[in-house]
Amino acid sequence: MLGSVETRSVSPVFVGRAGELTALTEALSRATAGEPQALLIGGEAGVGKTRLIEEFTGTACDRGAVVALGGCVELGADGLPFAPFSTALRALRRRLPDELTAAADGQHGELARLLPELGDPGGHDPADEDSTARLFELTVRLLERLAADRTIVLVLEDLHWADTSTRHLLTYLLRTLRRGRIVVVASYRADDIHRRHPLRPLLAELDRLRTIRRIELPRFTRTEVHRQLTGILAAEPDPGLVEEVFERSDGNAFFVEELVVSHEAGCAPGQLSDSLRDLLLVRVEALPEDAQRIVRIAAEGGSTVEYGLLAAVARLTEDELIEALRAAVGANILLAVPDGDGYRFRHSLVREAVSDDLLPGERSRLNRRYAEALQADPALVRADERATRLATYWYHAHDPAKALPAVLRASVATRKRHAYAEQLRLLERAMELWDEAPAEVRAALRPIDYADAYPPCGCDPDTTPLRYLDLLAEAAVAARLSGERERALKIGRTALRILGGEEENDPLRAAWFWTERARLQSNLGRGDGREEIARAQELVKGLPPSAVHAVVLVGAAGWGMLRDPGPEALTAAERAVEYARLVKAESIELNARLTLGTIMVAAGDVAAGLAEMHEVRERTTVLGQFTEAARAHINISSALEFLGRSHEAVETAEAGLRLARAYGLVDSIGWVEANRAESLFSLGRWDEVREAAERLLRSASSTKPRGSASLRLAQLAAARGEPDAAARHLAAARAVYGTRDPIPQYTLPMAQVAVAAAAAEGRIADVRAELAAAERGGFPPGTHRYGWPLVLTAVTAEADSRGLPAADEGRAEALALVRRCLRALAAPVPVWEAHSRHVSEELARAEGRETAARWAEVVAAYEPLDRPAQLARARYRLADALLVEGGRREEAAALLREVRATADLLGARPLREDVDLLAARARLSLAPEERPPAPAEPGDDAFGLTRREQDVLRLVAAGRTNRQIAEELFISPKTASVHVSHILAKLGVAGRGEAAALAHRLHLLDVPLRPGA
Q1: 3-state SS string over 738-793?
Q2: E-assigned strand segments in 649-768
Q3: Max Cα separation, the chain?
């Protein structure tokens, strides 16, 4: 019997694909040399993707590479989270047990979420938004370490079935893999990727990465089909058969095989159905009855079915089962799984055809038998698959009473693995089943078993039933953590609508949903969340202390910390700490204490605030709450920068980076790196700023750190005299931050860059408009750190434009605006006191009353501080004032040499040009070894301007036309025009406005105008 169904339909000869195989082997060679490689192989079902991969992996093994293969699993309409990665890591663990243990580097618990064999993955913190990114980072690092001294080929098949978490992990891997001898090969069925398929945007994104090569497999040519048939038949095929098979298969390699089987079985061409499904079922229908039954059972079990589970569902004797399996394997329909005790279909098309051929009642009955068998003996499948598969089987068995608890247990299992997209899908399925499940089943469910997003309400966990609102809370958090914020917002609206009805009166739960909504509104750029937080506060007012009450107060304090860190925010933070302690919610308490410490520093209670934050950092590290510990590093480094202690801020940020990288806290890395770049800018380490900001743009997983990177690059470009780059980066930052949630730590620095760009281009009206808009928005407590640089940039522009006709209109109002800002901004520490002195003296310069003595005080204020750019600019002003007042040329020259050296170090081109122009006007040498030239004679000028040209320049600066100049100096208009042309050439400027500005800045007009020629 067995011999009659054994069939050889696979060609022993590898046909075609020479170019594709060469691309794969070349990638293997490059990876072996230490350059990671990634390739995507696409093609329609049956075109030969698997055969190409098998040929390549055989070559890789021959070259000594370690091959780890994982396939995406289709289970009904579901996918198992991280299935291909778990399978591949399991293969690596078998091949390299000691090496994988060492590469895990103490992160076994976290990596156990992908590979349960590594240990206990531990619990889940619904507030930990970094958990998934951390798992991804640790996975990439594990692979890089394993591939440090050996070549690894990681193969991920059938991406068209990939679950969301697998797609996200693959994207992260391909974007961040930078070292190691590793080749990543992923395949997908191209004809399944319709316009709305979730893999489609991923493929589009990966196409933009130059490090990834995409290979599309075409169908075979007639010649290649001829070679395939020759290999299958082990003889030269009849030309008529070649023509018939090529025409009917259209070059699809798998269809060629099936047509050969049909031909060998004696089916005449006319007897063969045109239906693809019928073609694929020809071989199945030729099997003995028991074998056909096993194939139908296996088709409903998933991509791979374990032998024990198959036996339990089939209910055949062991001998009958083995004979049936032998027949199916001999017919090339099923294959034994090489790395496990199970079977899978040789080609998914056959499984789909068999599954589609099942009757509806037959499908439900098979799923019920699978569920019953697995429930009776859970050891039949691996632990990491058990909950999801049982939930799927019960769901497709159409038994809500059994399906609802199973689906909820599966949602908890996926949550523990940080597979939040899959958790959300399961929770939505639970909500679908909720009303269908019997009331007694729902009454037996407990929140403590299935839901932990909503804080404990103080009810008895043994008697309180799970509610539909618990599912909504869990789904809202899962949607937020999986990046589906719109979906989270919609779920929250549903919950609030239910809570607004007459049947529900639960102010605590409503307050929790309003707090979640506030966070989502801010994240989506829909608003600042203030209204939602106010609603939540109103709901909990007067209620006994609870964890929800503490969460609401933490939200209010956090809102105030970023937008208005005044007394109200301080009070909210203090009460949040108090309430969290009362209900013994330590994680909420630590979050609140960190916010409290930050607000205390902003309010001037520096020592106590820093002490509070340091205590939180130590405690969270001890408790293993590393996301909160990283947040402590972020807030402490920010507070130190606020205090002008930039060196300490950099050290704290670098410690935070080490922590975040050690635990894979990808989002935290972005925030810490952004703070570090800000402090490096203050310290004048501008090349490092550029490196950090560009790195942040490439790697940050959140939008706000990317916005900070663009903002830092904009500030750098403005300081270095690159107006086009400054405008480009500023536009990128503004696009990130939007306009609906103005936060001073972003809006004020962006205004400063806009003012700097406008000043560089002589747009004094735009300078004034930007400062006025900032002043209308106010300078809340603690925001002087951002306000002082803005006001300093604006008042410097006013001083530089003094005497220009275009700046005269509105000048008094502009200087009054600067004075209002000066009064509004606090200067509680030396660095901001120095800024205050600087602004005051620039204001004096704008009014023509500056003195060298006061500039010397500004210089003295900056000298003990780590602010090289500001110190250099103050020294430049002091040198200028000394030269104007006369008599201290050598002191001025020494100052200008110091400023020139600093400008060169910073790459500050505008400052360097100003120094050079001032030295040229004063005839000072900036070379220390040369004797300075003698002072210029009265009326002479370092730019070579004659006395008459100086007189003309004074009138040009006053806004006179050539005719008016001629009349005042008793010369002809033509002569006046010639003088103006000579002046522009000598000063190296393009127009009259630039000449006037340069003349005022360098005091070229200080000699009184003489009448006559």
Answers
A1: CCCCCCHHHHHHHHHHHHHHHHHCCCHHHHHHHHHHHHHHCCCCCCHHHHHHHHHH
A2: none
A3: 125
Q: For residues 818 and 123, what is the distance between their CA atoms, to the nearest angstrom? A: 55
The Cβ of residue 317 has, within 10 Å, a number of other Cβ atoms equal to: 10
Residue type, 915: V
Query: Which helix (H) or strand (E) covers residue 92, if one does?
Result: helix 83-95
Angle between helices 420-434 and 400-416 (to 10 degrees): 160
H/E element, 185:
strand 182-189
Residue in the structure block whose two tokens are 């340069």: 998
What is the spatial distance between Cα 552 and Cα 537, in angstroms, rounded to a whole number? 6
Q: Which residue type is seen at 884?
A: V
Handedness of CA 607, 608, 614, 615 (dihedral sign): positive
User: Which two three-digit tokens encode residue 76?
Assistant: 């009904």
Q: Which helix (H) or strand (E) holds 345?
A: strand 342-345
Three-state SS annotation for 481-542 = HCCCHHHHHHHHHHHHHHHCCCCCCCHHHHHHHHHHHHHHHHHCCCCCCHHHHHHHHHHHCC
Amino acid identity for residue 115 in this structure:
L
Q: Give residue-wise pLDDT tens across range 376-431.
A: 999 999 888 899 999 999 999 999 999 999 999 999 999 888 888 899 999 999 99
In which band, very low, low, confident or very high, does the pLDDT at 272 lie, cut at 50, 70 and 90? very low
Q: Is the dihedral of CA 979, 985, 987, 990 positive or negative?
A: positive
Q: Give the up-direction half-sphere exposure of residue 435: CA atoms within 13 A in the CB hemisphere.
A: 1
The dihedrals phi and psi of 39, each to the nearest 5 degrees, come to -135, 140
**What are the tens digits of pLDDT across the range 703-754?**
888 999 999 999 999 999 998 999 999 999 999 988 888 899 999 999 999 9
List Cβ<8 Å contacts ≥24 apart for 365-368. 365/397, 366/296, 366/297, 366/300, 366/301, 366/313, 367/76, 367/300, 367/392, 367/393, 367/394, 367/395, 367/396, 367/397, 368/393, 368/394, 368/397, 368/399
Residue 739's closest CA among 753, 728, 750, 755? 750
Under 8 Å between Cβ of 306 and 341: yes
**Rounded Cα gap, residues 671 and 654, in angstroms:** 12
Do the bridges between strand 37-43 and strand 182-189 make them parallel or antiparallel, or are there none, so unpaired?
A: parallel
Q: Are strands 342-345 and 304-306 parallel, antiparallel or unpaired?
A: antiparallel
What integer is the mean pLDDT of 83-90? 91
Rounded Cα–Cα distance for residues 668 and 389 (Å): 34
What value does the CA radius of gyration of the chain take, rounded to a whole number of Å? Answer: 37
State the Cα–Cα distance between residues 556 and 862, nearest whole angstrom.
37
pLDDT in tens, 487-519: 999 999 999 999 987 666 789 999 999 999 998
Task: Give the tokens for residue 260.
Answer: 């050969």
Are the C-beta atoms of residues 232 and 15 closer than 8 Å to each other? no
Length of the chain: 1013
- Phi then psi dihedrals of residue 41, to 5 deg: -115, 120
Q: How far apart are CA 416 and CA 396, in angstroms?
A: 24
Other beta carbons within 10 angstroms of residue 129's beta carbon come to: 19
DSSP-derived secondary structure for 901-962:
HHHHHHT-HHHHHHHHHHHHHHT----TTSPPPPPPPTT--TT---HHHHHHHHHHHTT--H
3 state SS of 5: helix
